[in-house]
Amino acid sequence: MGIQPTSVGVNDKAARIRSMFAEIAPRYDFLNHALSLNIDRRWRRFLVNKVADRLRRPGAIALDLCCGTADLSLKLSALAPTIGLDYCHPMLELGAKKIRRERRSAELVEADALNVPFADGMFDVVTIAFGLRNLEEPEAGLREIYRLLRPEGRAAVLEFSRPKIPIFRDLYHLYFTRLLPRIGKAISGSSYAYQYLPDSVLAFPDQRELVSLMQAVGFSDVRYYNLFGGVASLHIGDRQSDKL
Ligand SMILES: C[S@@+](CC[C@H](N)C(=O)[O-])C[C@H]1O[C@@H](n2cnc3c(N)ncnc32)[C@H](O)[C@@H]1O
After folding, report:
1. Mean pLDDT of 26-42
2. What is the pLDDT of residues 109-124, one digit of tens each?
3. Ligand 1-lining residues (CB < 6 angstroms)
4. Are 224 and 233 in contact (CB under 8 A)?
5. Is the N end or the C end of the chain the one with fewer CB atoms within 10 Å?
6. Separation between Cα atoms, residue 26 and residue 40, nearest integer Å
């Protein structure tokens, strides 16, 4: 167990995002739960329920990409051996502390989610929570997830999304683009990170566009669930069986 460092590819965007997460790491969990009124915990539980049958298969292994401080990795590890992967060392250190505290046997690996140091088809479940949007090329991230899944394996992508109910959508937009950056800056000390959050969500594909992207990569039976009116969405897609 413990963090296993491997080489991390760095380009401009990746390096910028990585130092941003390193800067906010000490306040990340607190802000996550406070700004979402703790709803993020429920979202991760929902995700785990949607992959639980795959995790209960004999010998199943899960990979949690962009695991950050390992909240989701910990939940997955209650059902199957889990590897959490992230390229930001300070986030992983916090995750490793939690894993030790909760006496779980999740492993953490320091690596780039676009260049994962594991063989094709190793995992029954690959998850990515609030990470895909941060990748240099989200489509390349989906291709990497597909590569890592074994046939009949399942991908789960949890990400901020776009509320669709008119009045709620407008109120939420105000909160997300005006209020949240100020609260985030006051608590984390980073003006960039909590402006980057709404900017990156608005630049990311919406629910239906993400379905199309996953289908284009090859996932089958792609579907999504709106969470809290579409503030976030969970997309599920399967890698097809080899047997036709
Ligand atoms: C918003 S946090 C999400 C953390 C966690 N999954 C959660 O649910 O709280 C995004 C994480 O993605 C990681 N990340 C972003 N780009 C990455 C990349 N190319 N490779 C590995 N990790 C990356 C960041 O370091 C950060 O820990």
Report:
1. 88
2. 999 999 999 999 999 9
3. 14, 17-18, 21, 32, 66-68, 71-72, 86-88, 91, 112-114, 129-131, 134-135
4. yes
5. C
6. 18
